[in-house]
Structure formats: structure tokens, C-alpha cells
Design a protein that fits this description.
By secondary structure, the chain is of the alpha+beta class. It has a 6-stranded mixed sheet, with helices on both faces. A 4-stranded antiparallel sheet has the order 1-9-8-4. It starts with a strand and ends with a strand.
Length: 452
Amino acid sequence: MKTLKTVRIRSLKLTKRKYEKVAHAIDCFKESMKFLIDKCVENPIFRKVSKKGNVYYTYSSFPKIRKSFYYEWKALFPDLHTHYCHSSARITKDVLKSWNSWCFKKKKRLSNPIYKKNSMKLEECQCYLDRNYIVLVVEPRSTYYIPFTPNEFYDQLKTEKYGEITLRLNDERTVDIFIPFITEVELKEPTSLTSIDVNERSIELITISAHNVKITRVDSSEISTTHYSYSLKRKTIAKNIDNGEKYQPRVRKKLLNKYGRIERNKNKNDIHAMANIICDIVNEENSIVVMEDLTDIRDSSARQKNVTQWQKKKSKHMRRRLNRRNFKQFQTYLDYKATSPGHLVEYENPRDTSRTCLKCGKKTTCTTQIFKCSHCGYSIDRQVQVPINIAEKYLKKKLTQWEEHKDVASSVPAERQLMKMVLGELREFRDLIVRDVSQLDERYPFISFVAT
């Protein structure tokens, strides 16, 4: 299994001439991006017609973008190396695909995308590593050496294989260098499964082995508190500046950027701390990690204009609360930290996991903290119910796939046997919850609270 770890290094202070050359290359890269984006938007060569006669645009091929506008690009940037057009076309493809999907979701044409980053991402032939130098090729047959001092993370993660290097310009005649190193990690043979449910003020995880089940709750209320307190600060800033007379836009932007940066950094530290706690549990139990697939989660919390009769619009306050949550950021950090030592991370569709009763298996809509089944009357804390349903759903799907494909490698049957034992232990634990909750403490370390 391949893992990607990016190291950020700051270069030494460059000479004035070399710094101007790097700044000129980044400016030309930004102009190249702007040129290709303007050329591609609503260009007939990317226009397609569906079977129903609807017109749409597709930007899935960066060689097509490069070949279509190469000669115009070369006339506009005659001094740049040819591969700058190739790198610009690759990033243009990603920008336009994202912009096109947003236009499709909003069902209207949005304003043209603008590349605002003061950085450039180049291929290995244009920007590569040579000992403690980054070699940058700006013009044909001319190279510039950017020196840097390795830090401890660089020495730990350095490998022979690395991806495309990104250079970002700083004001004090230095350059930030981002080097993604590629490492080969062997998957560890798991002995348990950990199912994780991310909530607004806590994170619940259930760890199931062949002989034991443990539910852990990690407190994440500090993140919600930070979001709320800084939203009040932004509201106060806007109110006070509206009463002033001079430099309103400049002061407003400066203050909002300042407090927004503080809020982001504080939440990043809290998320890193929570991910480290959970990774310690995963390493100790040697688990497969199963998380909810939260793709397009923000669409469900957005305001819907044409809702059906069984749907209900969320209030403005509730939408803001939900959209401020860092659920995907936490999953990204945890995925990165768990795969580094060789643990497998899987994602499961969370549909109906909070509405399915553990006793009768029927679905009941519930909007409170305690789930109460309308069919059998069984009640339980929803934050305990969801990770159990996610784990059972994943195990059933995995075992069904193995039954359909019996001719597999020799190492899989041992894993299949482990999953069967884990599923059996999970069902026994669920049955014990349904029968008598008071017996849980006699056999299982039920819930342990962990503070970040």
C-alpha cells in the first residue's frame, strides 16, 4: 500500500536576482492558468449533447486542453519551458471539473473560476530534488538552485520517490517548498475492527475483537464551542465597523482574516489531538478502521428550494451550525495517521444507521438524543446505536462479497474467519444490550470517556 506524506520546508534567503526569477516564473504560471481557463470556458471543443438533447461541457482530458491551445500559449509565453503548459493544463482540468460540477449542482452558470494562489505545482522534469537543493527549470537550458535546511520531518520521511513539488512565494525573499514523499507500507494483519461515528460534540468508536467489545467516547465539544464563540466575534466586528466612518472595508477584511486564521489554527490543533487519541487505540488494538462515507454531506444540510412533502427545511441557525462542523477534515487527518503504520481504512454508507432499531431491525425516524422504536418500543442512546449499525453493515457486506467470490488468494480465508468471529461477537454484544443493559458492566468495559 502506498502512502503520501508531504513535508513543508522553507528555503534559505535567496539573492535578489534569483528571487525575482522565481517570482517571475510564478507570475507567468498564474497568467498561464488564467489564459487556459478563459480559453476553455464554453469552448465548442468541450461541448457535448446528451441523448435528451441537453448541452453540457466536459473537462476530463488535460492533453486535449494542452494540444488545443499550445501554439497560442507558446506565442504568449515564448521564454517559458514547454512543460509549464503541461503542468498548467493539468491544474486547469481539475479547476474546471470542480467549477463545472458546482454549476451543475446550483443549476445555473457561476462566474468564471480565477486562479488566485501565489504558488505553482510543477512536474519532476521542471522541479526536482538534488541533495539540499531544489532545482528549478524556468527557461530551456537554464536552472536555478534553491537551497534549504532539512528539518526533522524531512529526515524522517525522505524517500527516493516523491511527487510533484509545489513552490509558494514569501515576502522575505524565501520560498515555501512542499515535497510529497511516497512510501510503501505493508498492511498489518488485523485482529479487530473499529467503527467510528462523528457527532457534533463527541466521537464514538466501537472496537470489536473476537473475544471483546469496547465503546469509547472522545469529547469534541471544544470545536463547536470555538466555532460559536468566533461567530459571535465576527458578528460584533461587523456591527462595530458599520457604525464607523473611515476605512471600513480595509479594517473589516483585516480583522475577519485575523480571527478566521486563529479559529482555523485552534480547530486544527484540536482535531490533531483527537485523531492522535483514536490512532493510539487503533494501534493498540491492531484494528481495521471503518468510518462513514460523508461524500456530499453538505448538500443535505443546505437550503433546499424544492423539497418534497416528507422533507423539511432546516432553519438558518441549524444550517450554519451543521456547515461549520469539521467532520471531513477529521476523517482526512485520521485516515492519514492510521494508514501510515499500515492499518486499513474503509468507508461505509451511513444511510439509515441512526434509524435502524437494534432489536427488531425496523426503521424509525428520531430527532432526539434517545432513539425509541415506534414498532417494538426499544430505546437506546443514538450515539451508541450508530457505530454498532455501521460495524454490522460493513461486516455483512464484506462477508457477502467473499461468498460471491470464493476463488480468492490463500491469505483471505484467515481474514474471512476473523470477520465471522468479529460479527458473532458483535451480535452477541447487541443481543446483550437488547436483553439487559445492567449486565454489560459484568462482561464488557462499556463506555470510557476520553478528554482531548
